[in-house]
Amino acid sequence: MVDGFITGIAPEVSSLSPVLQRPATGQQIGTVRSDHVVAAPLIVTLLRNHPEFGKVGDIDLIERGVADLNAARRLGQQLRELASAVEDTGKLSFDAGWQRAAEGYSNASRQARRDKTMDQAVAPVRNALRKGPRTATSVRTAATAQHKAAAAVSRATKAQQRAATAASKAAAVHPASAHKAHGVTTTPVENPQGPSAGAGVNPQGPARG
User: Fold this and answer.
1) Residue 53 pLDDT > 90, yes or no?
2) pLDDT of 161 above 80
3) pLDDT at 170 > cutoff 50
4) Which of 27, 51, 126, 143 could link 23 by a cystine bridge, Cβ 3.0 to 4.6 Å?
């Protein structure tokens, strides 16, 4: 049915194609604003009542632009709705067929567990169904690896920065400590036994008589 509709609508599309226009490369259409669309018909009325403010053909040109825009928007809306309905029709039809396809493949897969010939027959289907997940998995794996590599580089950079900061602090502290050490004066420690005795003095006191 859909194929027949495509064949029937093809002449209509061909007849519309010469009328359709596209902006030139780099051309921006900034005049089609909601306020402009509302104001254009009002300007037509203004110029009809006061033609001295316009030129010959202005009113026709303005009216044609408004009419073409409105008609194009109506057609565009209908085509968008039609395209959505056509797409949904195809999806629903495919879904109904896929239910049968999945059932048939499931039956063949069970047989393939015991039959090598059947296993070879279902292999292309099995590979086709695994292609998507494998691709997605490989993409995720690559992304994870890149993330881990970036994190490792970040950690190494931070470690180097910390080491450089520590070395800088150590270089600033050690010379100051050395300078203090050279300038220290030692205070003599008092002998707990008192002053040293002379050569003729008995440290145990006078001898007993």
Assistant:
1) yes
2) no
3) yes
4) 27
Kindly give the interhelix angle for 58-112 and 34-49, rounded to the nearest 10 degrees.
160
Q: Which residues contact 54 (CB under 8 A, 6 or more apart)?
A: 47
Contact 89, 2 (CB under 8 A): yes
Domain boundaries, the chain: 32-114, 132-173
Q: What would the pLDDT profile of 70-101 be if each residue is shown by its tens digit?
A: 999 999 999 999 999 999 999 999 999 999 99
Whether 48 contacts 59, CB under 8 Å: yes
Torsion, CA 151, CA 157, CA 161, CA 167, rounded to 10: 120
Phi-psi region for residue 60, left (φ > 0), alpha (ψ -120 to 50) or beta?
A: alpha
pLDDT for the residue numbered 178:
47
Tell me which amino acid residue 32 is.
V
Using H for helix, E for strand and C for coil, what is the string for 29-63? CCCCCHHHHHHHHHHHHHHHHCHHHCCCCHHHHHH
CB 197 within 8 A of CB 203: yes
Report the greatest alpha carbon distance in the chain.
156
